[in-house]
Amino acid sequence: MEKLFDIIHEDAELLVVNNPADLVCHPTKGDAFSSLISRARIYLGPDATPRLVNRLDRETSGVIIVAKTVEVAGELGRLWETRAVEKEYVAIVHGHIREQFGSVDAPVGKDEGSRVAIKDCVRPDGASAQTEFSVLQRFYRGQDGFSLLRVFPRTGRKHQIRIHLAHLGHPLVGDKLYGPDENLYLALVERRLTDEQRARLLLPCHALHAGAVRFDWRGDAREFRCEPEPWFADFLNSGQPAD
């Protein structure tokens, strides 16, 4: 049987997994392996009622917490709503960010100039959104510069990290929607992405990984961590340090 997922932690109430890039959280087609929640049902059995506590964009890998009961899902859902959860990501972006630390405080809302219905952008009448980051590494691949970042979203808007980094002029490597050409995203969903377009993207998925989640629950400090997938690490390891 196909491997379902990598388990980070499991107990009587929680299943925590390292969700692979390009696996959607909820079903979009009939295949039982096509989404994380359907795989969780396979793993936990036919009588299980798993609920996703958090979600990630389709191409974002990393920590996802699955509650095994509706009651636990409700408890943790209320905790998420209070913004008492710290989420830590790692990202690879185009270009060298000069500042060692930075933040973006820029509202986001629908990108009405885009042909892609789900695309958002920074706009003054959007919803409040804040993202903090630090630079872990600057490197080159050939003549092109890149930065490895640790990123902390302080709000939870859709596509927030991707939008904010692109707004800074440093989009994620491999981002088909918020990179330099949204036609790459349209080509992907219309199943006409060419080898030349894939080569332009440099990576099969955008380089964003949810590396850690931290929160206090029932009097205990919880932390769940996982490492990025091999293609993410290989891209880093193939570069030459800039510093």
Order of helices and strands: EEHEEHEEEEEEHHHEEHE
Note the gap between the termini. Answer: 46 Å
What is the H level of CATH, i.e. the homologous superfamily of the largest domain?
Answer: Pseudouridine synthase
Which oligomerization state do the chains in this entry correspond to? single chain
Which consecutive residue ranges, at least 5 long each, have pLDDT under 50? none
Taking Cα atoms only, what radius of gyration do you get, to the nearest Å?
A: 18 Å
- Count of distinct strands: 13
The tally of domains stands at 2
> Per CATH, what is the topology of the largest domain?
Pseudouridine synthase
Provide the residue-averaged pLDDT.
Answer: 93
Profile the largest sheet. 11 strands, mixed
What is the CATH domain class of the largest domain?
A: Alpha Beta
Helical coverage, percent range? 10-25%
Query: CATH architecture of the largest domain, please?
Result: 2-Layer Sandwich
Helices and strands: which structural class?
Answer: alpha+beta
Question: What do these coordinates show?
Answer:
There is one protein chain. The protein has 243 residues and is α+β, with helices and mostly antiparallel strands. It has two domains: 1-82, Pseudouridine synthase; 86-213 and 228-243, Pseudouridine synthase (2-Layer Sandwich), CATH 3.30.2350. The chain has six helices and 13 strands. It has helices at 36-44, 70-81, 160-167, 183-189, 195-201, 230-237; strands at 6-10, 14-19, 51-52, 61-67, 86-94, 101-105, 108-110, 120-122, 130-141, 144-153, 208-217, 220-225, 240-241. The strands form two sheets. Strands 1, 2, 3, 4, 5, 6, 9, 10, 11, 12 and 13 form an eleven-stranded mixed β-sheet that branches. A two-stranded antiparallel sheet has the order 7-8. 32% of the residues are buried. The model has no long low-confidence stretch (mean pLDDT 93).
